[in-house]
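Take a careful look at the protein record below. Let me know whether the structure tokens fit the sequence:
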Amino acid sequence: KVAVAAVSSLLLVAMVVALMYNGRGDDAGGGGVDVAASQKAMVTIDTLCSSTDYKKACVDTLRDSGNSTSDPKELMEIAFRATMDRIAAAGRNSSVLREVQRDPRGREAVDACAELAERAVADLNRTFEKFSKEFSEFDLTNADEVVGDLKIWLSGAVTYQETCLDGFEGVSGDAGDRMRDLLTLSMQMSSNALAMMTGMQSILSSFSSSSSSAAALGSRRRRLLSEKDDLPKLNIMKPDLIVAKDGSGDFKTINEALFKVPENSEKTFVLYIKEGIYEEQVKINSSFTNLLVVGDGPLKTRITGKLNFVNGTTTYQSATVAVHGDRFTAMDVGFENAAGPEGHQAVALRVSADLAVFYNCHMDGYQDTLYAHTYRQFYRDCTISGTIDYIFGDAAALFQGCTMVVRKPLANQYCIVTAQGRKDVHQPTGLVLQNCSVVGDPAYYPVMDVNKAYLARPWKLYSRAVIMESYIDRIIQPDGYLEWNGTFALDTLFYTEFNNRGPGADKSRRLKWTGIKELTGKRMKRFTGDDFIDGSRWTKHNKMKIPYKGGFV
């Protein structure tokens, strides 16, 4: 068995030794121990930072630490700690920035930054803890799984910092610029850690692909793909708590029930919400792990709110339901933001939880309906409706068998189905629509030639959206995509369509941006469930047997 941490250290040490040996020449043996140690540390630092995008930030941070170690693992810890300290400092400074904010939305943005800083630090911390675990816990057969976890958590740290800055959009004053200054180095270092992990993944994959145990693992995964999809069997899951608006359950409101949900649960806890319209803003905290929320159907059990940007709420804070607890599952529930198109950004559901599953749910709103914010997410047989950027965020999110409904917007608005927010080229994130349907609400068809609809536009520099094996109705414009702001991201985005059908699936008149790709089936495989989100490992974690396809449909 070989630890991920040990492998990375050995590889780095080997490179360092080779560099030092090749550079030593005939003058070896001279100089003091301290000088040799210092030189060795500098070579190790240069080697460690060589694969990063912000090399100067990496080198300066490690050299300025005052530690002369040449141990790559210790240097990685120094880098992680320095990054966490920077983010924490930004969070602390947010209280100072809040005092000078006259704009209510500015104060809310600063408050959000304090929360987001804590979440970014938590992601970096759990990444390093897993990276540093005893080598006996890992072997090469699960190297991809381990590094996949590390990359998605590091990506979360990057996203949380970017989300903090997003909150200052439309806010007067210089608070946004000041916060960006506070976060610049930590964002660069977070990106660097992600780059290092990406390089490590390539090396480990080459090792594991040649081992017999890896072949056995591949065989196991193929068996998983051949399993017949079963429908969920709710009768085997007895509710632990019941919410009923009519008083027939344990509680009348969802928020009351959450006080009784156990924290950091290792087993599934079932919260059953009976039929009714629940006018609440609900937050599933990160301590509520393995929570399963079940309703009576997405048109019967509905959670609704109306917080929105126009009324002074940031997009991040506008969510009717916000999910932070890992391994969260919802089925047969409707999520709604009823602010209407006049409210502009108004989120019905924000998912900031890893390994989250949604089955037979509805997410209804207008602009920014579903905020697939961070980590790995799976949506099956769901319906998402909206107008502008109504599926957005920086998660690694897979949608299978879902229906994306374009609604009638305001008179002067276009409609865009997705606006993916991948900021860093190393992030393993994107929005993948597989075997889905992109259609219009009945009220939209009469205005489709005026209020035109598009598949995607690039919210961030490396925006990534994949639409495969899906039905695309005639509502989608022939050119397919819409720019965000002039030429921004047109060369760096990644958009592709594969084996789609329907009158809107004709690619002959699609835009010819550099970032719009044409891929073969072999290259498209990396966007199927098992390759993109490692879904066979976790989508059925609560034994609900939610339908899932690991490969092509």
Confidence is low (pLDDT under 50) at residues 1-31, 210-230. The chain has two domains: 4-219, 227-537. Residues 175-208 form the longest helix (34 residues). The CA atoms of residues 433 and 467 lie 5 Å apart.
